[in-house]
Amino acid sequence: MTVYAAEGRNTEAAVVVFPGGGFRTLAIDLEGTEICNWLTSRGITCVLLKYRVPGSNHYWDDDCRCHITPRVPRALQDAQRTIKLVRAKAKELSVDPNKIGVIGFSAGGYLVAQTSNIFASTYKPVDAVDKLSSRPDFAVALYPGHLCRSDGILDPGIRVTKQTPPTFLLQAWDDPVDPVCNSTVYARALDRAGVPAEVHLFAKGGHAFGLRDKEHPVSSWPMLVENWLKEIKILQP
Length: 237
What we know:
This protein has helices at about 30-40, 75-90, 90-95, 105-115, 180-195, 220-230; strands at about 1-5, 15-20, 45-50, 60, 65-70, 100-105, 140, 150, 155, 165-170, 195-200. By secondary structure, the protein is α/β, with parallel strands linked by helices.
């Protein structure tokens, strides 16, 4: 994990970033350092997580299009531990321990859903830090993957409850990698559980646009996220 300090006025909010990469690699610049540059410029402390890949968490069978998760979900372990560490170091990092969120892209968006709904530790306690909660206080998932299964069913490993944090979802309808169903099926689950959510679906944008799309309205997503963070009282109006 790499910590990027907030610039200018510190909002005392922190965001852990989960880059995408299909659980085979990590788009560490497109969906990592570039995202942190944006967040820190808004007074938000950014924590970039380099979680373990490939072959350590999720395997994707291209023939059956089925999702297989082995016993040791190492990427989730890394994500849970990082959130706990940020919470434990809140004072040192000058952040509010109750304003720690996550943002993820593609496969990282799936990690957002996991950390938002799986609160029991997926690894044996290491130290006192593991007594803290790994539940994020807010969650942002952009063009998430692996959530929508056959017949439009939500991954059964994701059990949304009232404890799921407020969530922001955004995806392009023409995404050729992760169908828009990944966002819509999760949005329906959030709605059924009564979890506050904001959902944006754009006609064009494709996949893995990060902050680089300058041609389509989907490029407005950073402003939409900022406005949402103000709405849920993470940032000041």
